[in-house]
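Sample entry (178 residues):
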Amino acid sequence: MQQKAQEDISAIKESIRQTLAKNPGTQLEPLARENGLPTSDVIELLPEGTWQKTSRECFVDIMKALSKLGKMTTIINTGDVIFEYVGEVPNGGVAHGFYNLTPKSPLHGHIRHGNCKAIYLVERLFMNLPTLSIQFANQEGKIMFKVYAGRDENRQLLADQVDAMKALFKNTTEKAIA
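Predicted structure, serialized as tokens:
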């Protein structure tokens, strides 16, 4: 019985890989829901080289660094609602079990950062445009929120943010391993 379940999951994952290969811009959350998998599992089915994963211990360092990169897009997708905020990621700090975003920003609130299980750097096409995001996954593998590199007036990714996000991810990942 257990072997059958493993075979079923393997077949589902292979089907998802094929879907992502045929349509690289497929939305990940609906694909995960339709197949009964956490979104983090679907991220890990993206082609090699399009994603990296780091430890939840990097949460605070990554958030603090993102707050210095300028105007970006933060997305929260619950399945029922997709909220998008375009602006600077606010600085914050840890207190009372939360990572608290500064209330001086239009985007503010409290993130239960201890529930973050993994953080992903994802580079892929979406709506035929290249994207680069940092995605924070909770214990269930659902994406808590995502922060995308900004775009210029020609809808091109901001090269300085792309470079900074990649360097940030590399540095925090190396720090977590050390």
